[in-house]
Amino acid sequence: MLYFQQNARKFGKSIALLSGSQAYSYSTLIDQAEKIAGLLVEDQADLHQSPVAYMVEPGFAYVSAQWGIWLAGGIAVPVALAQPVDSIQYIIQDTGAKTFICSACFTSLLSDFCRDADVRLLVWEEVPETASKSLPEINVDKGAMILYTSGTTSLPKGVLSTHHGIESQIRSLVEAWNYTADDHTLCVLPLHHIHGIINVISATLYVGGKVEFLPQFSPEEIFARFKQGALNVFMAVPTIYFKLIAYLESLPESERIELKTCMQAFRLMISGSAALPVSVMEKWEILSGQRLLERYGMTEIGMAISNPYAGERRAGHVGMPLPGVQVRIVDEKNRIVEGQPGEIQIKGPTVFKEYWGKEKASQEAFTEDGWFKTGDVAELADGYYRILGRNSTDIIKSGGYKLSALEIEEVLRTHASVEDCSVVGLPDEEWGEIVAAAVVLKDKKSSPEELNTFMRQKMPAYRVPRKYLFLSELPRNAMGKVTKNDLKVLFT
Q: What PANTHER family does the entry give (predicted)?
């Protein structure tokens, strides 16, 4: 019996999910999952790791569909709710999924597509009250979930994790962040990424806690839930905190004080999925009384590094290795380095199994001795890791220097007129790459000359942006990360 099935039976009538205006117990959740599993297996004994795509609304439908796929022996393939049909077609073709579960509101989008692709379409709301079926025993080393990478430099790759890998990720977080049955968290994140699926939902349900769902992002609604006083854990991406800060700053002082009192009662607030600007961390602490816990992870490895739950949460750093995770920093020749930047490599049971159907890419992702090559550059000081950026997009090689775009961004954000920014490297014959900055202004008064003067007072000339581009907003993906390859095109 898989861990979530055992736990659901153990927690029984305790509330697991709050979705819409309804509360769902663990027993109700696992019963619905078993009905879905019975419908999926039909006359088979086991789905034998067949991928099953699902596009369902956040809440009871989502979790029961995911668990149902797992109980039937299938591999869960979550599809983003805002995914265009072309992207859905790519996922179906890449995974070879022959079954698609959807919420009723998506049938008009998917019915013709599934018919033409010879894919069985199951509508979640139409799952029949079937007699219980004998469900397969699932080996924990079998495939459990395929999540797709962002695909910024190539077509997205399907990241396959096993049941053992997923539970290892959960257990590591439960130990590090002190999850308990008293936890009540709010899910505001998309559920085709590991952040929402594992950190918010799976880890909370693992210990018998409650997950509350917010179908659409709304600062007003988030703070309304905070005021109710039941929530004690909140996780989000930096862009969400940025928007919440802007909303708080627009409120009268009396309302800000009331909300700060509510937020101070939370036991934990976390930021992840993109680098947390120091300015955002500091503003949030002033407004909420909460010092955000920043961590580092990715689809292929789950969470790997985290600031401590109890201890110093160091601004601009992602912390220390999580339980069960091995971390090392290596140079371009794969030699371990100390006291200087290098690529982060990760090893442990939390690491994914393979890229689905891509044997060569899977082999190239690992060293000969089994370490996963993240492609992220970091340095280690006083036991804390600090991310300098992604090798391909955040490390700018200019005139013989290796420059961290993230460091330059932090300085640029300290200018009084800069609301947000993103730094990239642009090809240049003389320098290799030159530093360029896209800037979102709070007002329209600043100029490239003014920003250039400011930056030259703060850092050496070779690190100062040579080009500036003013935008109303930065291009981002669903998790709030700036899509730097899209940004580079805007400079041309």
A: ACYL-COA SYNTHETASE, ACYL-COA SYNTHETASE FAMILY MEMBER 3
Alpha-helix runs per DSSP H in 320-403: 359-364
Question: pTM of the prediction?
Answer: 0.87
Examine residue 219 and state whether it is found in any structural domain, yes or no.
no
Residue 305 contacts residue 319 (beta carbons within 8 Å): yes
The CATH number assigned to the domain holding 427 equals 3.30.300.30
**Domain end (from 106, 138, 170):** 138
In a domain, 26, yes or no: yes
47, 70 Cβ separation under 8 angstroms: no
Q: What are the pLDDT digits (tens) for 287-307?
A: 999 999 999 999 999 999 999
In this predicted model, what pLDDT tens digit does every residue of 115-131 receive, in sequence order?
A: 999 999 999 999 887 76
pLDDT of residue 213: 96
What one-character-per-residue DSSP string does 421-467 give? EEEEEEEETTTEEEEEEEEEESSS---HHHHHHHHHHHS-GGGS-SE
Which of 84, 107, 138 lies at the terminal end of a domain, its last residue?
A: 138
Burial 15-44 (b: 16+ CB within 10 A, else e): bbbbbeeeebbbebbbebbbbbbbbbbeee
Query: Can you give the CATH number for the domain in which 22 is found?
Result: 3.40.50.980
Q: How many CA atoms lie within 13 A of 166 on its CB side?
A: 29
Q: What is the per-residue pLDDT for 83? A: 81
Could you give the C-alpha distances from 158 to 102, 149, 365, in angstroms and in order? 20, 7, 13
Distances in Å between the Cα of 66 and the Cα atoms of 20, 38, 106, 107, 132 are 19, 13, 17, 18, 18
Residue 437 domain-assigned (yes or no):
yes
pLDDT one-digit tens code per residue, 346-388: 999 999 999 999 999 999 999 999 999 999 999 998 999 999 8
Assess whether pLDDT exceeds 70 at residue 4: yes
* Percentage of residues of the chain with pLDDT beyond 90: 76
d(CA 443, CA 377): 34
> Residue 441: which domain range?
395-490
Residue 467 located in a structural domain: yes
Q: How many CA atoms lie within 13 A of 155 on its CB side?
A: 13
- The CA dihedral of 464, 466, 471, 474, to the nearest 10 degrees, is -60
Handedness of CA 229, 230, 234, 240 (dihedral sign): negative
Roughly what angle, to the nearest 10 degrees, separates helices 219-228 and 238-249?
80
Instruction: Find all residues with CB under 8 Å of 241, minimum gap 6, and list them.
Output: 271, 276, 280, 284, 292
The total of structural domains in the chain comes to 2
